[in-house]
Design goal:
The protein is mainly beta and 494 residues long. It is 0% helix and 38% strand. It has strands at residues 5-7, 71-73, 77-83, 92-98, 101-106, 109-114, 122-128, 133-139, 142-151, 169-176, 184-190, 197-202, 206-212, 231-236, 244-247, 274-278, 283-288, 291-296, 304-309, 318-323, 329-334, 355-361, 368-375, 392-394, 403-407, 413-417, 425-432, 445-451, 454-459, 463-469, 484-485. The radius of gyration is 20 Å and the shape is globular.
């Protein structure tokens, strides 16, 4: 249907640069800062664009900030490989995995990597299809791409167009990826307020996508308030071109968190940012701006809220969620500053721009989310580095231990344990020094996930990093082998 372009390894740079719209200002005030979620309007920091070749790094001294672009890491993490970005001015986003391939979104489309040899990954294809954020998920021969930027049409040749125009398009794009070198764009599904992120919910004959989007406006014909739910897209496995929106369940009949001025510095809930499902337990956890929710997905077209919590003291923007393996905990992230602010510093403190750890108590419809503690990386970052809690995944160690790996933008990649919900601790890290030392820059790890024995990080400006983790606490995870990983569709590992 719609046209698009692919380029192969060693081909020309991919597409046009993301336009600069100025850095965030007044991110940190006397109270919690209001979030501008995800750095879609920021331009990547320049840094050293000669490439991101990995070298043997060193451990940080307490309180030390590494030099510009300097690689540092804990003794239990070894950087194995890096594939530099084809165009460092284009923001890299989320990751998905299937078999020997990694699928990496970026604001110009997506890239397919062959990771059969983690020490020497290879670029297979670069698909040009502009639109933020271009978060990805995969199932069989299908790849799903989220578009949450107003476009002139649904094609891969579209250009930016104001959301005030009725003809503008945002939503889900579906590709056939049977031929990894030549993906085919086969279907689009427009969704209200676009698709900032989406979560794949596997079913019998059908696949469902929970589409998260937010920030309605009376001036936007396709994004009208109130926007107090999510779009559910049904994709027939045997006829994916018949994909369509089948429901819009209301998750916040009372409107959700009112935000400021009632709750100063907290985002008003006008939809969800990200949802993680645990199909084996018919559970989902939603990070929805000013609210965190737990809901039942036994009827995937009609998810039902079980419990809802708020943190109007330390959370500015509920961003994402991760269950532990036993499904009795949820880690929620707070994206203070929208991913564009320097919030990993002493001034911000250890409880803002952090993870919130919640135990799930009770059973059935009486389950509750009970707050237990915060986790934030203990390594302070420079005031020129954007840093905040971002995308991560479990490391499937089993045995009752809870360990995950997580991206922190220019705070790098953190491996941390939350077996004791109230006393979480970092057990490993990898990061680069500031991209810039004279002004606030945008960069660092957007997504850091564990897949089949290795950690993969999609760095906003530096490209794909592959890391090896050697630690007695995580050694058992190397025995867990998956044929597919969409992190927001959390598998049952054991």
């Amino acid at each position: 249907m719609s046209t698009f372009h692919t380029t192969r390894a060693r081909s020309a740079r991919a597409g046009a640069a993301v336009a600069a719209a100025g850095l965030l200002t007044a991110l940190l005030t006397a109270g919690p800062a209001a979030a501008t979620p995800d750095p879609g309007d920021l331009s990547p920091g320049s840094g050293n664009q000669r490439g991101a070749a990995l070298v043997d790094g060193r451990e940080l001294a307490p309180g030390e900030i590494p030099g510009q672009d300097e690689i540092v890491h804990s003794a239990n993490i070894k950087p194995l490989a890096n594939i530099p970005s084809a165009d460092p001015t284009v923001i890299n986003s989320d990751l998905a995995f299937q078999g020997r391939y990694a699928y990496a979104g970026n604001y110009n489309g997506f890239t397919i990597y062959d990771i059969a040899n983690p020490k020497a990954p290879k670029t297979v294809t670069q698909v040009l299809c502009p639109g933020g954020q271009n978060d990805v998920s995969v199932y069989g021969d299908l790849l799903f791409l989220s578009t949450d930027s107003s476009r002139s049409d649904d094609s891969c040749n579209s250009v930016s167009q104001p959301a005030t125009e009725k003809s503008s398009w945002e939503g889900i794009k579906i590709f056939d990826i049977k031929d990894k070198k030549n993906p085919k764009y086969i279907k689009s599904v427009e969704t209200n307020c676009g698709s900032h992120t989406h979560t794949l919910v596997p079913g019998g004959r059908d696949i469902y996508l929970y589409v998260a989007s937010y920030s309605p406006n009376e001036a936007f014909p396709d994004c009208q308030p109130p926007h107090d739910g999510i779009s559910v897209v049904k994709v027939p496995k045997k006829a994916p071109t018949q994909a369509a929106v089948v429901s819009f369940p209301i998750l916040f009949p009372d409107g959700g968190n009112p935000g400021g001025p009632t709750n100063p510095g907290v985002s008003k809930t006008t939809g969800c940012h990200d949802i993680t499902v645990l199909p084996s337990k018919n559970l989902a956890a939603g990070a929805c701006m000013g609210d965190g929710i737990l809901f039942d997905i036994s009827k995937p077209e009609q998810p039902r809220v079980i419990d809802r919590v708020q943190d109007n003291v330390n959370f500015a923007f509920w961003h994402s969620a991760t269950f532990n393996e036993r499904a009795d905990k949820v880690v929620f992230t707070d994206e203070l500053g929208g991913g564009g602010g320097p919030t990993c510093n002493e001034a911000t403190g250890p409880h803002r721009g952090a993870d919130g750890i919640y135990d799930i108590t009770g059973s059935g419809d009486q389950r509750k989310l009970a707050f237990r503690g915060y986790f934030k990386i203990p390594r302070h970052q420079a005031d020129t580095e954007n840093c905040v809690a971002h995308n991560g995944s479990l490391i499937p160690v089993g045995g009752g231990r809870d360990i995950m790996v997580q991206a922190w933008y220019q705070g790098g990649v953190s491996v941390w344990e939350f077996t004791d919900s109230a006393q979480p601790k970092e057990i490993g890290y990898f990061e680069r020094g500031p991209l810039t030392t004279d002004k606030l820059g945008l960069g660092g790890s957007w997504s850091a996930y564990y897949y089949n024995g290795h950690i993969y990080s999609n760095d906003i400006t530096k490209g794909l990093d592959v890391l090896r983790l050697d630690d007695w606490r995580t050694a058992s995870a190397k025995w867990v082998w998956l044929d597919r990983l969409n992190v927001q569709s959390q598998p049952e590992y054991h």
